[in-house]
Structure formats: C-alpha cells, structure tokens
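> call design_seq(struct)
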C-alpha cells in the first residue's frame, strides 16, 4: 500500500479508509498479517497489521530491497486517446514499470484536455495508476504530469529520446537497433501519437529537439498497442 509521507522502520501507519476496507473486507486479513508499504520516497517495507476497531494500523518492521524497477527509467509521452483506451494505457504502463507519463495534445488529437475537468480527471487517472502499482506489487509510483501541448511534453527528455513513427516510407530505424547503439544509458523518453498519429511537422520538430524516429514494425499499431510494445521492448532490452 502507498503512504503519502516519508516512513521509517518502526513507524505505525494508519491506513486510509479505502485501504483499510480492502485489507479487512476484500483480503480478509487479520492481526499480524503482513502487507507491503511504500512511502513517498519510494522506500518499501514489510509491515504487520494491527486492528483497532475500524482502524487498521501497519507497523513497519523490515525494509525491502527494490526488485521491481526496470533497468532504465522510462518516460512515456502519450498523445491523448479515447477514455477506455487511455485508462488501459495507464494501467498497463504502470504494470510494465513506466516511471513517468506525460499526456499531450497535438494537431491530430481528437480528445482535448479541457482544463475545467482536469482536476477530477487527474484524480481518476492517479487512482488507476495507484491500483495498478499495488496490484503488480511494484515499489514505485508513476509520476503523472498534467496534459500539455506536444512541444512542452517533448521537454521531458532523457538520455535517449524516441518518437515512434509508423514506417510508411521505411526510413525509421527499428527500435531494438537504436537501443543497441546506447547500451549504457539509464533513461529513455518514448513519444507515442494519438489515434491520428503525428504530422510530418511534429516529427521534424521532435527530431530537431534530439528525438530519434523509430519503427515498431511493418504494421500500423493502435496507439495503445504501440505504447505498450515500445515500453516493453525498451525495458526488456535493458533488463537482459
Ligand atoms: N495516423 C496513423 C495512420 O492511420 O496511418 C496511425 C497512428 S497510430 C494509430 C498511433 C501511434 O502509434 C503513432 O503516432 C505512432 O506513435 C505509433 N505507431 C503505430 N504503429 C507504429 C509502428 N509500426 N511503428 C512506430 N510507431 C507506431
């Protein structure tokens, strides 16, 4: 379970209402059962549970070494796509170990980021991410940024920066061939377009900013497939 403050060994942490309900009624855990707690610094602990009425308290008694991180830090710049697919990308990216997600709008995005509803949306998206992180037992949260324009999203650069562009004219380099040229890096940013993809001007703009154009294969993938294929391809390459 995630805890919003910094924690240390021997702390007693009161689970929030939703977590307490999950522990008591969904998992039917009892006194002294063990859970994992991750604090805001992404440090993970084993904790014993104590029950005081409806209150569930976790006593942190052992720090856990972090085995769930990918060998590279991955930032996903994802063009906004329709709701169900967007939620799917969030959930699956969290499972695949993405560290940061930057939603963007561009000339061909159909879904627009309406500011007045953004607070509510960010809450819902963060909840999806949190639940996915808990479910797959990763020890770090996903840092979700507010939606912005592509040119601003592109500033979230890493040591290697990639724009996935369907290979209409067969000039994009294959993802794994590009990665093979950068064996020692520790961070990668991957830009994936929305349903409408990137315009030529947008691809040029990103390339001028130092992005490498890559192909994910001969077929045109849906945005959500492309995102997950690129994330997995990258993390798998550096985990080998
Ligand atoms: N508008 C495009 C079309 O219909 O020709 C398709 C865009 S695709 C649905 C959405 C995004 O997925 C693209 O912007 C790109 O980032 C990524 N993508 C899909 N297939 C790809 C491939 N074969 N190689 C690289 N990127 C791909």
């Amino acid at each position: 379970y995630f805890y919003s403050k910094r924690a240390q060994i021997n702390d007693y942490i009161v689970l929030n209402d939703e977590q307490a309900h999950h522990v008591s009624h969904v998992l039917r855990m009892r006194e002294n059962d063990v859970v994992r707690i991750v604090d805001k610094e992404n440090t993970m602990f084993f904790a014993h549970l104590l029950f005081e009425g409806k209150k569930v308290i976790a006593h942190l008694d052992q720090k856990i070494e972090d085995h769930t991180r990918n060998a590279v830090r991955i930032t996903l710049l994802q063009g906004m796509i329709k709701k169900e697919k967007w939620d799917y990308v969030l959930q699956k990216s969290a499972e695949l170990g993405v560290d940061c997600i930057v939603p963007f709008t561009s000339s061909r995005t159909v879904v627009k980021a309406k500011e007045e509803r953004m607070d509510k949306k960010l809450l819902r998206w963060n909840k999806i991410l949190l639940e996915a992180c808990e479910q797959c037992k990763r020890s770090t949260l996903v840092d979700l940024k507010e939606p912005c324009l592509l040119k601003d999203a592109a500033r979230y650069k890493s040591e290697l920066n990639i724009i996935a562009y369907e290979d209409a004219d067969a000039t994009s380099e294959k993802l794994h061939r590009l990665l093979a040229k950068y064996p020692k890096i520790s961070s990668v940013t991957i830009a994936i377009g929305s349903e409408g993809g990137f315009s030529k001007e947008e691809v040029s703009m990103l390339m001028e900013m130092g992005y490498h154009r890559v192909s994910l294969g001969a077929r045109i993938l849906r945005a959500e497939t492309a995102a997950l294929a690129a994330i997995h391809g990258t993390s798998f390459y550096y985990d080998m």
